[in-house]
Amino acid sequence: MKSSAIEIRIASYEDAETIADLSRSTFYDTFSEQNSSRNMELFLKEQFTHTRLVSEVGAKGNTFFLAYLGGTLAGYVKLREGEAPKQFTGKKTLEIARIYGVKACIGKGVGHQLMQVSLETGRERKLDMAWLAVWEHNTRAFNFYSQWGFEIFGTQVFLLGYDLQKDWLMKKSLK
Which end of the chain has less neighbouring CB within 10 Å, N or C? Predict the structure, then answer.
C-alpha cells in the first residue's frame, strides 16, 4: 500500500530484530521526558526486552505492519487478535496493541497510514471491534485516536518500572 512517499508492508519474522529495536527506541523517545529515568530503565530491562519483543513477531494472533517514509523505516503497528477486555465477550476484536512512529516522522502521515491499514485489516477479517489502550497523559495519541472515532470505554493499569499508570481503553466499531 502506498500513499505519497509512505509505504506500508506486512512484516515477517525476518523483521523481528528491526521491530524489537524500533519498539524500544520509539517507546523511549515517546515516554522518557514524562517518566523517571529509573522507571524507564527498569521497564526496558525487565518488561520490554529485546528478546521478548523479537518473540512477538510471528506469534499466534500477532500481525505487524512496517511503515517507510521515502524508503526509510518510519514506524510500525502491532495488531493482536484473541485477547480482549471482558466488555467484548462474544465479539471478534482487533487490538491495536502498538502504533509507534519514529520521532522525526511524526506529523508526516505515517500514523494515519498505519491506522488506516489496521482498520482495513480488521474489516477484511470480518471483526466487530477495534480497541486500544493509551496512557492518560499521552494527549497527542489520545487526540489522534479520537479523530479516528475511538471512544473511551474503560481504564486499565499499566506498570512502567515501579510506577502504576492509568491507560484509557478506547474502542471503535468495524461495522
Answer: C
* CATH code for the part of the protein at 2-173: 3.40.630.30
Identify the DSSP state of 170.
E
Q: Which positions are annotated as active-site residues?
A: 145
CA distance 138 to 122: 24
Q: Could you tell me if 49 and 21 are in contact, meaning their C-beta atoms sit under 8 angstroms apart?
A: no
pLDDT at site 3: 47
C-beta contacts of 147-151 below 8 A and 24+ residues apart: 148/115, 148/119, 148/172
Rounded CA gap, 154 and 166, in Å?
A: 10
Residue 150 above 50 pLDDT? yes
- Higher-pLDDT residue of 4 and 101 is 101
